[in-house]
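Model it.
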Amino acid sequence: MIRFFYSLLVYFLLPFTVIKLIYRGFKQPDYLQHWAERYGFYSLSTKKIWGKRKTLWIHAVSVGETKAAIPFIKLFLKKYPRHHLLITHGTPTGRATSIDIKDARVTRIYLPFDTVDATQRFLNTFKPELGFLLETELWFNLIHQAHKNSIPLYLVNARLSEKSFQLYKKISTLIKPSLQELKGVLAQTMSDAKRFESLGARSVEVMGNLKFDVAPPRDIKTQSAALKKHLRLKNQSVLLIASSRQDEEEMILQSLLKLPIKNLITIFVPRHPQRFKEVELMLKKYRVSFIKRSDKKITAKPYQFILGDSMGEMYSYYSLANIALMGGTILPYGGQNLIESMAMKVPVILGPHTYNFHDVSNEAIQLRAATRIQTLNQLEKVLPEMLKSTSQLKMKKACHEMMDKHQGATLNILNKIKSTI
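Modeled.
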């Protein structure tokens, strides 16, 4: 009964999705493309082609989930050469995220909105043998339709923050049936597993975090050398403001302008590309010397700041950095993925808000791969100390040890599900 009312609500909201897509399209034109996929409509040729294929399906809603899925995707293609791989996304940035895989068996589309009809059409068209939802993607009609069609569906790399857990408890009558229709919940940590079990999930196991298995691009040294040359960086210390969110850049800039640190270059890389222009205007407002990654030609004049207005170069930015200040942690956004930074052996500064990466953040701090500040005023003390060569060496070593300790989730998950395929 509760799913019936949920479905009615989704149908009621469906017309507003058109307004939402158009509104977002003004800032990010990619939202205006592929609408048929959003509503679960596919051509006859698509249905004929996929009806003949053996298909595995992975849903990675946005950038972080897509990157986390890369080792998973590569291993699938290697172990199951007769299968095609369907990857669904919820955002244009997720769909545009490079997976560094050239294989005709990989297809990427949008997952339809969670109506009964759209999810039925999606599953009837692509007929996956097995499906995987990454992290916390609980779409109740989708899960129910997969269950009705006897399609095993796993929640993998599953995580559930304490904040989300408290919210989900309030709608447990909707959450519990869906969790119990999943084939299994393969959680990142014991804390995540306990929260899912408390909500009624069955077959919950701890498999580790796929993001620890993600490797930097093979040609990262070449890429970063080219970027360093383009930006005319030499021997300066580099602070990377990684995946910053709305209003954080201005707060951070105000604090940095108070610091008497010589020879420091700060690179701002906003989380969302539609905000590149906004951050550029902010830098102009403060009349600071800056350049943009997108500048075709950069003069050798001194500058303090760089706007990283490009997509797909995060590893290169990390490669240039001495320290990364993680976006989403200064204001209560819950934090962004600090594992990429540690994979590049770049020590991390975290703000107080890391509930989306609670366990990883706390362990990184314990191992001294990261440090936490409660206010940006603390940068005055923390930043000079972390820039010392002795501190750099110790923290880089801690980053390596933490990465090495947690790798292996991809194989754990594949071993778990191999009898299902």
